[in-house]
Write a structure and sequence with these properties.
Elements: H1 5-15, E1 28-35, E2 38-50, E3 54-58, E4 68-74, E5 85-96, E6 100-112, H2 117-122
Antiparallel strand pairs: 1-2, 1-4, 2-3, 3-6, 4-5, 5-6
């Protein structure tokens, strides 16, 4: 049988399922396992790597595959060098073992957490405005 370039490309994709670039970001993460509208389980861990389509993080317990999950982590970069951000990830547990869990990201959003107090203190404040 003659192997075509198309079939060779398919075999390469089958070997490496991660098409998106993964970034080594280690941050504390909080998670909520959801059962309908109820929170089934909560916990903490640490992200190991993340891409636009998935995240791997450590857990204390094995998580149930197929369950919806919400992750929350502080983003390591400040918005405009002054405003901390939180990354919220909504997805589904696709794999879990004794070391951690993989989540397929369905959607995500960045939330601001307020400006850093130190920057606010650098601005001059007029205590007694002129009349």
């Amino acid at each position: 049988m003659i192997e075509t370039q198309d079939s060779a490309a398919v075999k390469n994709v089958e070997r490496e399922r991660r098409i998106k670039r993964r970034f080594q970001i280690e941050q504390e993460v909080r998670y909520k396992m959801l059962y309908g509208q109820r929170i089934a389980e909560t916990g903490t861990g640490k992200t190991t790597n993340i891409s636009s389509s998935g995240v791997w993080f450590t857990t204390d317990n094995m998580l149930t595959t197929g369950m919806p999950i919400e992750l929350s982590m502080n983003w390591p970069v400040l918005l405009n060098d002054s405003c901390p951000m939180k990354l919220m990830i909504y997805g589904c547990v696709v794999r879990s073992n004794e070391r951690g869990a993989a989540v397929a990201i369905e959607r995500y959003e960045f939330r601001t957490q307020g400006r850093i107090f130190a920057q606010a203190m650098q601005q001059p404040v007029e205590l007694f405005p002129a009349h």
